[in-house]
Write a structure and sequence with these properties.
Elements: H1 27-51, H2 56-78, H3 86-129, H4 144-154, H5 163-168, H6 171-204, H7 206-260, H8 265-276, H9 282-295, H10 299-329, H11 333-347, H12 351-370
Subcellular location: Membrane
Region (Disordered): 1-28
InterPro entries: AI-2E-like
Length: 371
């Protein structure tokens, strides 16, 4: 009997192709995936912005200060004594910014508290005896009798039971005081968080600016990076044109206040400097000071103060400030003015610096359209 060879095992089924060798998805499916990813990214970004919405202003303020001081930061980092000491540089510059803000505000508060006692005594005297007719009313060119009669009938009498004194103790005034206190506390908290954010920005240093420029080049090309640099230059020029010129005006007017014999020269100079940082607000401060001199009988000093202040403001507003801002941003003065005023109306004090940057974007778009 002849034996048969063993039967061959059945052939194994063909193996399934690996996932990498699978058929690529269809183009319409790829489009849907990209659209879904884009929607997801946009939703996550909007959610993150909503979470940190109360700190956006803090980051914006820190960004404005950092942009203004960035050339100084790079110069300090280039010094051989500070090479590689980014934390030390960040701490020093942050403390300097804090002192530049805290010291003037502290001086103003100290002078205000020093005058609180005298103001309280005057207030008590007005309640008990009324307010005497000022001497300057008798020197007015017209209306002396009418003003004197009204003053005697309304202010020269004891004011304890008057409607004005009752209004000072009303719930409206108390509510306004509480609101002012809450705003002051909020401003201090914002300032503290701004200092922390500013320290982080300074510590990041060139790495942060390089990352921003790289992201703009990757997302928008070289034109986007150039636009970002021009916007930074616009913010820097606005800070120089507003803050530096405002401080200069405040210093010059402080000297004029001292020469004119006004009290509290440091306080008045600081208020004038703050007002001069806003367009066309400095005349309000030295105008009120001139009126006070007129009330005291110093007409010549009042005229001299008003004339000197007008000359300083005219030169600063029409020559110095447009040159500082316009040369940095390469914007016409009218666009700079619209950007400052419109930004202040839209975004508040922060908008003074954001407005010219947005006008720079508008100017770049217009230039590209014309070309």
């Amino acid at each position: 009997m002849i034996s048969r060879p063993p039967a061959a095992p059945p052939a194994a089924p063909p193996a399934a192709p690996p996932e990498s060798a699978a058929t690529p998805p269809r183009p319409d499916r790829l489009k849907k995936q990209k659209a879904a990813s884009l929607a997801l990214y946009i939703g996550l970004v909007l959610l993150a912005l909503w979470v940190v919405r109360d700190f956006i202003a803090v980051v914006a303020w820190a960004g404005v200060v950092a942009i203004a001081l960035w050339p100084l930061l790079r110069r300090v980092e280039g010094n051989r004594w500070f090479t590689g000491r980014t934390t030390l540089i960040a701490v020093a510059m942050t403390l300097a910014i804090a002192l530049l803000v805290v010291l003037p505000v502290g001086i103003v508060i100290a002078q205000a508290l020093g005058e609180a006692h005298d103001l309280n005594e005057w207030f008590k005297s007005a309640q008990e005896n009324g307010i005497a007719v000022p001497d300057f009313i008798g020197r007015l060119p017209f209306g002396v009798q009418q003003i004197s009669d009204w003053w005697q009938a309304n202010l020269a009498q004891p004011l304890r039971g008057s409607a004005a004194m009752k209004g000072l103790h009303s719930t409206t005034v108390i509510t306004l005081g509480r609101h002012f206190g809450a705003r002051a506390v909020h401003a201090m908290v914002v300032f503290a968080f701004m200092l922390v954010t500013l320290f982080v920005i300074f510590q990041a240093g060139p790495r942060l600016s390089g990352s921003l420029l790289k992201a703009m080049r990757k997302g928008f090309g070289e034109d986007g990076a150039a636009l970002l640099q021009r916007m930074a230059a616009a913010v820097r020029g606005t800070v120089s044109g507003l803050v530096v010129v405002g401080l200069g005006e405040g210093a010059l007017m402080g000297v004029a206040y001292f020469v004119a014999g006004l009290p509290h020269v440091a306080l008045l100079g600081f208020i004038t400097a703050i007002a001069a940082m806003l367009p066309f607000c400095a005349p309000i401060t030295f105008g009120l000071a001139a009126l006070w001199l007129v009330a005291q009988g110093s007409v010549a000093a009042a005229i001299g103060l008003a004339v000197f202040g007008s000359v300083v403001v005219f030169i600063a507003e029409h020559f110095v400030r447009p040159v500082l801002i316009g040369n940095s941003t390469r914007l016409p003065f009218l666009l700079v003015l619209f950007g400052i005023l419109g930004g202040a109306e839209t975004f508040g004090l922060l908008g003074i610096f954001i407005g010219p940057a947005l006008m720079t974007v508008l100017m770049v778009l217009w230039t590209d359209l014309v070309k």
